[in-house]
Specification:
Largest interface: A-C, 71 and 87 residues
Keywords (chain C): Cell membrane, Membrane, NAD, Oxidoreductase, Quinone, Transmembrane, Transmembrane helix
Order of helices and strands of chain A: HHH
Protein name (chain C): NADH-quinone oxidoreductase subunit J
Strand content of chain B: under 5%
Distance between the termini of chain A: 50 Å
Helix content of chain A: over 70%
Number of strands of chain A: 0
Organism (chain C): Bailinhaonella thermotolerans
Number of domains of chain A: 1
Chains: A mainly alpha (98), B mainly alpha (646), C mainly alpha (292)
Subcellular location (chain C): Cell membrane
Shape of chain A: elongated
Radius of gyration of chain A: 17 Å
Mean pLDDT of chain B: 86
Number of helices of chain A: 3
Low-confidence stretches of chain B: 1-8
Largest sheet of chain B: 3 strands, mixed
EC number (chain C): 7.1.1.-
Oligomer: heterotrimer
């Protein structure tokens, strides 16, 4: 049973990673990152049950807290950038190139 | 190691304790100071430069004469006097103390150098009177005299080498004295470079001596010479021979001497006739303990001498340039000296005796040629001379006396010394004796031929002068040295040879020759020589004295062309050495440009190209970077999986 | 047994929703898909003896974080949609390859995981008297330092967001007097007619009528008009439709290029126009001063 959860977690993580690579809207990219974090949380909870102690749940809890803080700041950044550049596309920050 | 000497040279070298011998370093210092003053002073010394130079040379001669009499005042065993000067290179094991060795050999040379040198200085006052650079000429002459004296007076091989290089430098400066003439500059360069090949041999020889004996001073080396192996002595002997060949213009390094005639005639007289070219003979005679211990090297010396004397004689036959004919003659006569020096103790003293007499008559003939050129507007082509004896009597008489000396006319200088050489050559055992003696005999005949040819073309026959040539006798400042040198040509040989005077004089240095029976006027060899000489003169009379000499040089037979081209010496040098050298340099340049530069530049280009391609990874898009990171993470996961930790 | 069914159903749902999140054109749809994923994950937590985490997932993650996403989406552009054209060459292909490869590697690795015994948390939670007390015990005893640090982090994050979102006024706030003056100097001194004035319907998209009976284009909502013209939303009445067509035609005559096919900028311009309206009096005053 645990392995099922872990496989699901791996799948969700990979899908989130592909989403980060493919999408151009900054907010959607951010959402894919949240998806990856959630997948990691799932794996943690599954392992907690497997090992029989609650450390995995604690870590998942803290992951949630930190993810929330990260979302707050990240979205504030996106809004600020959007105000000046009128664009939320990730590809627009491409000046540091050859 | 058995010694071939019947009596060993005086081993003990006394030390000079003041007196004339203690001041013998003045011989070198005075001309050196003269050269320095004239060179540093520059144009300000133009007015008295020639007089200062001549005065220095004469002062050096006076010191030499005083030292000579001082030496005569001693007994034979005490005739080798060392004069310590200073520590030159005190470098651990290599401790070179500079000092002088005044002994019969060095004092003979010193007298010759300063005496003939001073006469040539006086002659140059007149000869170079129209030249604006006369002061520089005298400074170089003084430099030469100083260096040559250092060469012969030094008591160690390093001092000899310094003098060796010094005379090479002076020769270069003087051959190329008329710098504006490209031919002179080229000739000076050629002389220097060919000499350098010989110097290389000499230097390696000195290194070997130091490695074997731990010192470069004559005394210790010659004392222990018989303790070294024959192989080492032979190697050193051959290396010293190479050095001597360079300086004395012997085969195979003879190509520079004829080109050196580009310099002013006093230079040709002093350097390339009387003194510098004899330095090789000096070297071999001075190193006689080494050569006596290496018979193979001695044989090499004799063979080189014999070959060169024939080559020089043949070349001299076909030259229309009076100076080049005399240069060929010089090459040939030095060949005689080398031949004698290669005969061992039997020949050293004879070689030096011939060297001294040669110094007189050859310098005299060169100065005479200079006088003739001076009269004929510096034209050297003998085909434009003819019938000069009536117009220039003093020159004709002095030149003629020198001519008689060189061909070996009985009673004149060359008769005594050259005949001794031929006899000593025949005196060698076996086939060697016949070959060497035969070569010397043949050489005498050819010498008689070409010198007579020179005389007939220049002083006898019809006048073939140019329209604007007004030949006249030279001024006294030029004719008096001629007269003095002619006296030496006449009486020098008899003075040295009769009574074995010179042979005894040199005994402390070279030892007593075995089986020497003194000079025999009616020895069979001597008579044959006279017959051959007469035949040579007669042939020259028939070809050049009786028939009119064509002004334009005729095409000539194969032998004539062969001799005109210096026996193809230059052609051989070019094809054997020069062209391969050029190809080598071209190949080196090619290799450097393509190979080394190609490697370096190619590396740089490679780096540049690679970085140019690599920088395309920096697209600036965050998503590409995210892809690279993800790719890396995948690789790490795969690696962990492989290792088994995942 | 129940767990198995729950797992399989929710697994399929969450994977489908994740794929929907990644491959959707409209950003708002992606946000809704994310909400679906989070809710199904909450259910999975509940099934795995983590009730506290399940509730926290719903309240914090779905309720707060996701709503924050939606708010920002509204700020940035609700109808913003990515174009399908990929600008970076090979990105999609490589992303697919690497992503699939990574997934395969992870799953293969999971195959090596050794499962010990029967997984159950009852032993751990029983002695503390339930899941929540056990968690509380752990947080406030063993991990209290991490707890304090994360609270500091939260405070910092809030402050940071405030700082980032704050906008300094570069011009003084226009007072009532400034606004009134600008209004009278501007093109339209009277308030704009509300929609539906003198009309027979009070729908939002009904235009106002001028005294002579013609449609006042000022009263038509441009956004609604454009949606109606493009067929996204149906007009309430034929009159509303006519007015919408008129307004869109008038706008297209003025700026034909600017409005069509925008990606994420339409609402941005709406916001810009709203801002510009507020600052127009001051801006209008300045060029007047410059031209003097």
């Amino acid at each position: 049973m645990t392995t099922h959860y872990l496989v699901l977690s791996a799948l969700l993580f990979s899908i989130g990673a592909i989403g980060v690579l493919i999408r151009r809207n900054a907010i959607v990219v951010f959402m894919c990152v949240e998806l990856m974090l959630n997948a990691a949380n799932l794996a943690l909870v599954a392992f907690a049950r497997m090992h029989g102690n609650l450390d995995g749940q604690i870590i998942a809890f803290f992951v949630m807290v930190v993810a929330a803080a990260e979302v707050v700041v990240g979205l504030a950044i996106i809004v600020t950038i959007f105000r000046t550049r009128r664009s939320a596309s990730v590809d627009d920050v491409n000046l540091l190139k050859y | 190691m058995t010694s071939l000497l019947a009596a060993a040279p005086a081993a003990e070298i006394a030390q000079a304790s003041g007196g004339v011998l203690g001041l013998s370093w003045l011989m070198i210092a005075l001309p050196l100071a003269g050269a320095a003053i004239l060179l540093v002073g520059g144009r300000r010394t133009n007015s008295f430069g020639h007089l200062l130079g001549t005065a220095m040379s004469l002062a050096s001669f006076v010191v030499a004469v005083l030292a000579f009499f001082e030496l005569l005042g001693r007994t034979a065993e005490q005739r080798r006097v060392g004069v310590e000067l200073f520590d030159f290179i005190p470098a651990g094991q290599l401790d070179v103390k500079m000092g002088l060795l005044i002994d019969p050999l060095s004092i003979s040379f010193a007298l010759l150098i300063t005496g003939v040198g001073s006469l040539i200085h006086i002659y140059s006052i007149g000869y170079m009177s129209h030249d604006p650079d006369r002061r520089r000429f005298f400074s170089y002459l003084n430099l030469f005299v100083a260096a040559m004296l250092l060469l012969v007076l030094a008591d160690n091989y390093v001092g000899l080498y310094i003098g060796w290089e010094g005379v090479g430098l002076a020769s270069y400066l003087l051959i190329g004295f008329w710098q504006f003439k490209p031919s002179a500059a080229v000739a000076a360069k050629k002389a220097f470079i060919v000499n350098r090949v010989g110097d290389f041999g000499l230097a390696i020889g000195i290194f070997t001596l130091f490695a074997t004996f731990g010192t470069v001073a004559y005394g210790p080396i010659f004392e222990h010479a018989d303790k070294a192996s024959t192989g080492i002595l032979t190697a050193v002997g051959l290396l010293l021979l190479l050095g001597a060949c360079g300086k004395s213009a012997q085969l195979p390094l003879q190509s520079w001497l004829l080109d050196a005639m580009e310099g002013p005639t006093p230079v040709s007289a002093l350097i390339h006739a009387a003194t510098m070219v004899t330095a090789g003979v000096y070297l071999i005679t001075r190193s006689n303990p080494i050569f006596d211990g290496a018979p193979t090297a001695q044989l090499a010396v004799a063979i080189v001498g014999a070959a060169t004397l024939l080559a020089g004689a043949i070349i001299g036959c076909a030259k229309d340039d009076i100076k080049k004919a005399l240069a060929g003659s010089t090459m040939s006569q030095i060949g005689y000296m080398m031949l004698a020096a290669g005969l061992g103790p039997a020949g050293y003293a004879i070689a030096i005796a011939h060297l001294i007499t040669h110094g007189f008559f050859k310098a005299g003939m060169f100065l005479g040629a200079g006088s003739v050129m001076h009269a004929m507007n510096d034209d050297v082509n003998m085909r434009k001379y003819g019938g000069l004896r009536k117009v220039m009597p003093i020159t004709f008489i002095t030149f003629g006396l020198g001519y008689l000396a060189i061909i070996g006319f009985p009673g004149f200088a060359g008769y005594f010394t050259k005949d001794l050489i031929i006899e000593a050559a025949f005196g060698q055992e076996g086939v060697r004796g016949y070959l060497l003696g035969g070569a010397a005999l043949l050489g005498a005949a050819i010498t008689a031929f070409y010198m007579s040819r020179l005389m007939f073309m220049t002083f006898f026959g019809e006048k073939r002068w140019d329209k604007d040539a007004h030949p006249h006798e030279s001024p006294p400042v030029m004719t008096w040295p001629l007269i003095l040198l002619a006296i030496g040509s006449v009486g020098g040989g008899a003075f040295l040879v009769l009574g074995d005077r010179f042979i005894h004089f040199l005994e402390p240095v070279v030892g007593k020759p075995e089986n020497h029976h003194g000079f025999n006027p009616v020895a069979p060899v001597g008579l044959i020589t006279l017959v051959l000489v007469a035949a040579g003169v007669a042939l020259a009379w028939v070809m050049y004295g009786r028939r009119p000499v064509p002004v334009e040089a005729p095409r000539g037979s194969f032998l004539t062309v062969f001799a005109r081209r210096d026996l193809y010496g230059d052609a051989i040098n070019e094809s054997l050495l020069m062209r391969p050298g050029q190809w080598l340099t071209r190949f080196a340049v090619f290799f450097d440009n393509r190979g080394v530069d190609g490697l370096v530049n190619g590396l740089a280009a490679g780096v540049g190209g690679t970085s140019g391609r690599l920088r395309r990874l920096q697209t600036g898009f965050a998503r590409s970077y995210a892809l690279s990171m993800f790719f890396g993470a995948a690789i790490v996961a795969g690696a962990l999986l492989l290792v088994g930790n995942l | 047994m129940g767990e198995q069914i729950t797992f399989w159903v929710l697994a399929v749902v969450s994977v489908a929703a994740a794929l929907g999140l990644v491959f959707n054109r409209k950003a708002v749809y992606s946000a809704i898909m994310l909400a679906v994923v989070m809710l199904s994950l909450a259910a999975l937590y509940a099934v795995q003896d983590a009730p506290f985490l399940a509730v926290v997932q719903i309240i914090v993650y779905t309720g707060a974080v996701l709503m924050l996403f939606l708010f920002v989406l509204m700020l940035v552009g609700v109808d913003s949609s990515d174009s399908l054209v990929e600008t970076i060459r090979g990105q999609r292909f490589l992303a697919a390859v690497v992503g699939l490869g990574f997934a395969v590697l992870l799953i293969l690795g999971i195959g090596n995981v050794l499962v010990v015994g029967e997984p159950s948390l009852t032993a751990a939670t029983q002695e503390a008297g339930g899941n929540v007390p056990a968690l509380a015990r752990l947080i406030f005893q063993r991990h209290v330092f991490a707890f304090e640090v994360t609270s500091a982090l939260l405070i910092t994050a809030a402050l940071g967001a405030m700082v980032l979102a704050h906008r300094e006024r570069t011009t003084p706030r226009p007072t009532q007097k400034d606004l009134a003056r600008a209004r009278f100097l501007g093109p339209q001194p009277t308030p704009l007619p509300g929609p539906g004035t003198y009309a027979r319907h009070n729908a939002v998209d009904m235009p106002a009528l001028l005294p002579d009976g013609s449609v006042s284009l000022l009263s038509v909502n441009p956004t609604l008009a454009r949606h109606e013209v493009e067929g996204d939303t149906p007009a309430t009445t034929p009159e509303a439709r006519e007015a919408a067509v008129l307004l869109v035609a008038a706008e297209d005559r003025e700026e034909p290029a600017a409005e069509a096919g925008e990606e994420t900028r339409t609402a941005g311009e709406a916001e810009a126009r709203a801002e510009a309206d507020a600052e127009a009096p001051a801006a209008a005053a300045r060029p007047e001063e410059e031209t003097k």
